Amino acid sequence: MPIQILMPALSPTMTEGTLARWLKAEGDAIKAGQVIAEIETDKATMEVEAVDEGVLGKIIIPAGTAGVKVNEPIAILLGEGESMADAAKPTAAAPAPAPAPVAAAPVAAAPAAAAPVASASSAGRVVASPLAKRLAEQAGLSLSGVRGSGPNGRIVKADVEALIAAGPAAPAPAVAAPAPVVAAAPAAAPVAAAPAPKPAAPPPGQAFDMVPHTSMRKVIARRLQESKQTVPHFYLTVDLALDALMALRADLNAKGEKLGIKLSVNDFVIRAVALAMKQKPDVNAAWSDEGMLRFKQVDVSVAVAIPGGLITPIIKNADQKALGQISQEMKDLAKRARDGKLMPEEYQGGGFSISNLGMYGIKQFSAIINPPQSCILAVGAGEQRPVVKNGALAVETQMTCTLSVDHRVVDGALGAEFLQVLKGLIEDPLTMML
Amino acid sequence: MSDTSFDVIVVGGGPGGYVAAIRAAQLKMKVALVEREHLGGVCLNWGCIPTKALLRSSEIYHLLHNLGAYGFSASNISFDLGKIVGRSRQVAGQLSGGIKHLMKKNKVTVFDGHGRLGAKAGAARTVEVLGPDGKVKQAVTGTHVILATGARARHLPGFDVDGGLVWTAREAMVPDRMPKQLVVIGSGAIGIEFASFYRTMGAEVTVVEMMDRILPVEDEEVSAFMLKAFAKQGMKILTGATTKGMTRTATGATVTVEQAGKSIDLPADRIIVAIGIVGNVEGIGLEGTKVKVEKTHIVTDGMCRTDEPGIYAIGDLTGPPWLAHKASHEGVICVEAIAGLHPHAIDVTKIPGCTYCWPQVASVGLTEAKAKAAGHQVKVGRFPYVGNGKAIALGEPEGMVKTVFDAKTGELLGAHMVGAEVTELIQGYGIARTLETTEADLMHTVFPHPTLSEMMHESVLDAYGRALHF
């Protein structure tokens, strides 16, 4: 029987995506494991691999279609000796026998923190009451990845109503959400209180072009608005002396040249942040209504600007990695981020973020926290500044960093202690080698 | 732990209290139950169960008078009221003994006496057990105290219950003799059940209802259906009528009723007052606690917690609906929440209600009027008993099944049934509501033939213009 190829869920939060490109044409023979299409999700472009072999009978969703719902048929795969006439039979219109005839490679590894949430995994069936399913369908919501409040996580009417009330942001808690997400309602509640973003009226008498939002733009807008509206931010700013670090960096880079290692200041900042998190583990935590979620790994997210937006790939277990390893991982992640080739688990999660605008000559700025993390460090440019030392003017290379902090998780003194530790590591960089 | 300190103390051994005790024992808590009279409470001893035994007798009596329709004949049909009442008491006694066994099996320590909240004992709470003389016989302590003291009939000023002329439900189920002219004040489930029982057994019955229809909590079509059915049976029903008082006479009393500005005198040799219940909130030590009482009932949240930490309340002692199965379910929720499980709060629109009159009435969820008032656009289905093969074969052609759906989502909002055995059938719709089925699932369900339950299917089909047999 012809098999429907369905829009895969590439992450637990994914409800829809853009079918960016078809790599196979109708009539092409397909082998299992071959890449047949590319899908642009929230933040990255994913490859869709064929699970079965056959002939691509029909492309249902043309390339460049935005807003394709998860599990919507995107193409029909014909088996041996089958034609599209078989596909037209009513029986073939039924959902494909396997719940996920097409599994994109990244599906398997959901972000670790999200694992307990995804009881209805992207590959499994969604356990929901008939009424809940219908309400979700009418509201255009996907229930995959949602954990319900009914027996064994069954999604019931009240859960869907909470999701609808929470607006499009609702499935967000799946990103490193706390394990006991009951109905997603607790997480959704504060969002529901916020007024739904209304389309602003076009200013009178001004000509404009309407540029449709990309999926990434929508995610950035939703998550950062949610963060700024629901997370009580405060900010701590500190100047860090860089002369010792610059000298050490020059030294190490000279020695690492033949190994192909070239460390950036940012690589040092990543390592210093990781070590400071290790020393002040209370910073590596997230707020949930049920209790404080203390992360067991030291994972550092690093904001990378990419065409059309930004993304935060993660250096995992950064406290256990040498500078050279951090440097190489970061280069690889940044390149693949710009190419749109990151896997979801490479950018979903993390316990702390670093945003560096120093290369643009920005002296100081305050970043918005990347929920559910509790801190983000905004790193400015390293520059020579006049300072007073022992009563005399001197010149020192300095960099200004501002830590944005979620006050529900981290209090002022703890944030200050963290920066103190960080300052110690940056200003005496040999301690980073200990 | 000593024998007087417990994890949970339940005050009151009715269907709320004893079920709470069993569930707590299942969850490995050390449980005490304080009961002042009979295990099983009003439900088992003076309510649901003994009245069902009485109604069974009246059904048989009715059948005996209609034997001809089934090819039988009999003469000199008579009954012995004492034996009928005796059977009813025996049934209650047997079941109450069963509860005693259940308590023993679950290792629930039962204290005989009146339970009253005492002082705080650290994090725990003392409960005093009072003897019949009102003196404290014993004090026990519990970390959690669940109040399940139930309710009693509301009295009507001017109608002093004396057990002879004026009855509440309690007296009405142990009659000394058959009333000749019975006036029933109130047409809720209790009033209607006794009216139906005594009418079937041959008494002249008049029902006085203040509202404009009988069984006022039921769907309006059900009320109208029952009004006709009772009228056909020869019952007199005065709706929109208020009692003004009664004067005793040589043979009983005259009840004065005002209806539409007119005064009506009803002769009666027995009067049943069934105008609702009041919660048993007195003498249980609420003074000095933060427990809030509104209109004789304790205010609780969805997990049966009162405003006083460590004190819970369930069943008739709390808000409506005042039904045994609601009390039992609250007992389970209350205990599971104490145990740190996460039960769903009770949803009253998923609790079926049954009235054991003849024909029977059963319902769950919203009435059509309430559904509309709640802003639903509705689709309504109806199916009459006369269109059902099994009903005709049983000789029970009177009744109907009504279903109310949300037109947009297909949610089954409510179901309302009248007719033979509807009290046994309603649970089908109860499951449907709890599992949140839509019309599609109900349509896809295969109902066995020939059964009365097929009407439940047909009613759903009818709501979507697809009824097959009518």
In short:
The complex is a heterodimer of chains A (434) and B (470). By secondary structure, chain A is of the alpha+beta class.
3D architecture notes:
The complex is a heterodimer of chains A (434) and B (470). Chain A is of the alpha+beta class. Chain A is built from eleven helices and 19 strands. Chain A has three domains: 3-108, RNA polymerase II/Efflux pump adaptor protein, barrel-sandwich hybrid domain (OB fold (Dihydrolipoamide Acetyltransferase, E2P)), CATH 2.40.50.100; 112-191, no CATH class; 232-433, Chloramphenicol acetyltransferase-like domain (Chloramphenicol Acetyltransferase). In chain A, strands 9, 12, 15, 16, 17, 18 and 19 form a seven-stranded mixed sheet that branches. Chain A has a four-stranded antiparallel sheet with strand order 1-8-6-3, with no helix packed on it. The longest helix of chain A is centred in the middle third of the chain and has 16 residues, at 215-230. Chain B is of the alpha/beta class and 470 residues long. Chain B has 13 helices and 24 strands. Chain B has helices spanning 15-26, 41-46, 48-64, 81-105, 169-172, 189-200, 220-232, 324-338, 368-373, 389-394, 422-434, 439-444, 454-463; strands spanning 5-11, 31-35, 109-112, 114-121, 124-130, 136-147, 151-153, 166-167, 181-185, 204-208, 236-238, 241-248, 253-259, 262-268, 270-273, 277-279, 293-294, 297-298, 311-313, 353-355, 361-365, 378-384, 400-406, 412-418. In chain B, a hairpin with a 2-residue loop joins strand 4 and strand 5. Chain B starts with a strand and ends in a 7-residue tail after the last helix. At the A-B interface, helix 3 of A face loops of B.
